TrEMBL record:
Residue ranges of every copy of the ATPase F1/V1/A1 complex alpha/beta subunit N-terminal domain listed in the record: 8-74
Organism classification: Bacteria, Bacillati, Bacillota, Bacilli, Lactobacillales
Its biological purpose: Produces ATP from ADP in the presence of a proton gradient across the membrane. The V-type beta chain is a regulatory subunit.
HAMAP family, per the entry: ATP_synth_B_arch (MF_00310)
Listed InterPro entries: ATP-synt_VA_C (IPR055190), ATPase_a/bsu_AS (IPR020003), ATPase_F1/V1/A1_a/bsu_N (IPR004100), ATPase_F1/V1/A1_a/bsu_nucl-bd (IPR000194), P-loop_NTPase (IPR027417), V-ATPase_su_B/beta (IPR022879)
UniProt-recorded name of the protein: V-type ATP synthase beta chain
Domain ATPase F1/V1/A1 complex alpha/beta subunit nucleotide-binding: 131-349
Length: 465
């Protein structure tokens, strides 16, 4: 039998102290009945003998210590999952906010979930196509991977997130594919942008959206990614779907975590963030992956803005430790009109070699990727040299690399937010650009592949350049 308590002794920020409790467990769901008749939901954060610390979803404002009633539900916060979630939009706490009918859940699931047991993991090695050349070709995403996007202030990471959500798919049409999109701390305009983008393009028909607004209580942001991952795990492991989870902006999530930590009067760590920030982030990121014996998979693209554009800040720093690479957006490319402004040189997908090659993409994928990277790096060096010493200091080969770099940024990177290139279009474009260079410079490509794919009239053009 559930007990009701009227022993609230303190409220500070989103936290409530309840004394004289019995049989209460960590993470237990709490129902808070306020003196006005309003009901709020909470969750047990900490137990100290007969005292419980409860975090209140909705915030602690308006709570009357004398008249507020608290009921511990004996179970954790849960989310009702069903295949009918697809095509629907929810708020940050999992309540339907699209005006549609209620969903009858197949089951109720604990939103906290668990990280995948390393012994049960299957290695990620299957290609996911985003339609963006700099990701598909240069920093390939594979099923079960977690590949974050690091953005700076003012950069269009929201547009990139929407583009990936619209365009992402698997090459095998027989596979079921779904996108779970979780937005945390976004403005009303950004929320409308995502919703309109999904609906106008039809992407909503295979998507589940969770939107936490900037004016929602910060404490709710801590639940949003957990609920989104709970929905993704159900679709992946119960419905055998390949699910891509896009979470933006993880910086807002970490700020909410810092706010709760400060309210609990915990000793702060780096930059005021709690010392368990790494552990907390890992409980989210490690819910991605493939499981042996299961057909489905959960792939993650967390997006975060780097405070002060500092990649050594605790949020990107710890995210980089946990995940398998990073895609970095660049201010210089953005100022030059390149969209999306992805800088391929510092970007990295540690699992890209596992998802490429014949039978997965195409036989020339890895070779052209390495050659493009090398040529672009040399072209950037030539550009810096020209700035310091002038064009006269460049050799004929340097000028070819400089021409390659300019066209690489203009034609390959700068594809816009509405262009959806499949991997084969991207590879063909790569060969067009590499044709600027003579064959003798293509030292990272197998000779047989050069004979097969190098444009026939390109050698003459490059020699005459």
């Amino acid at each position: 039998m559930l007990k009701e308590y009227k022993s609230v002794t303190d409220v500070y920020g989103p936290l409530m102290i309840v004394d004289d409790v019995e049989g209460v467990g960590y993470d237990e769901l709490v129902e808070i009945q306020m003196q006005t008749g309003e009901s709020r939901v909470g969750q047990v954060l900490e137990i100290q003998e007969d005292r419980a610390v409860v975090q209140i979803y909705g915030g602690g404002s308006g709570v009357n210590l004398r008249d507020t009633k608290v009921r511990f539900k004996g179970r954790p916060l849960e989310f009702g999952v069903s295949e009918d979630m697809i095509g629907r939009s929810f708020d940050g706490l999992g309540n339907i906010n699209d005006g549609g009918p209620a969903i009858i859940p197949d089951e109720m699931r604990d939103i906290n979930g668990t990280a995948i047991n390393p012994m049960a993991r299957d290695y990620p090695d299957e290609f996911i196509q985003t339609g963006i050349s700099t990701i598909d070709h240069m920093n390939t995403l594979v099923r079960g991977q977690k590949l974050p996007i690091f953005s700076g202030s003012g950069l269009p990471h929201q547009e990139l997130a929407a583009q990936i959500a619209r365009q992402a798919n698997v090459l095998n049409d027989n596979e079921q594919f779904a996108v779970v999109f979780a937005a945390m701390g976004v403005t009303f305009e950004e929320a409308k942008f995502f919703e309109n983008s999904f609906r106008e393009t039809g992407a909503i028909d295979r998507s589940v959206m969770f939107i936490n607004l900037a004016n929602d209580p910060a404490i709710e942001r801590l639940a949003t990614p957990k609920i989104a991952l709970t929905a993704a795990e159900y679709l992946a492991y119960e419905k055998d779907m390949h699910v891509l989870v896009i979470m933006t902006d993880m910086t807002n999530y970490c700020e909410a975590l810092r706010e709760v930590s400060a309210a609990r009067r915990e000793v702060p760590g780096r930059r005021g963030y709690p010392g368990y920030l790494y552990t907390n982030l890992s409980t989210l990121y490690e819910r991605a992956g493939r499981i042996r014996g299961a057909n489905g998979s959960v792939t993650q693209i967390p997006i975060l803005t780097m405070p002060e554009d500092d990649i050594t800040h605790p949020i990107p720093d710890l995210t980089g430790y946990i995940t398998e690479g990073q895609i970095i957006l660049d201010h210089e490319l953005y100022n030059n009109g390149v969209r999306p402004p992805i800088n391929v040189l510092p970007s990295l997908s540690r699992l890209k070699d596992k998802g490429t090659g014949e039978g997965k993409t195409r036989e020339d994928h890895a070779n052209t990727m390495n050659q493009l990277f090398s040529a672009y790096a040399k072209g950037k060096e030539a550009k810096e040299l020209a700035v310091v010493l002038g064009d006269s200091a460049l050799s004929d080969t340097d000028k070819l690399y400089l021409k390659f770099t300019e066209r690489f940024e203009e034609e390959y990177v700068n594809q816009g937010f509405n262009t959806n290139r499949d991997i084969f279009e991207t590879l063909d474009l790569a060969w067009e650009l590499l044709a600027i260079l003579p064959k003798s410079e293509l030292t990272r490509i197998n000779d047989k592949l050069i004979e097969k794919y190098y444009p026939e009239d390109a050698e003459t053009e490059s020699e005459g350049a």
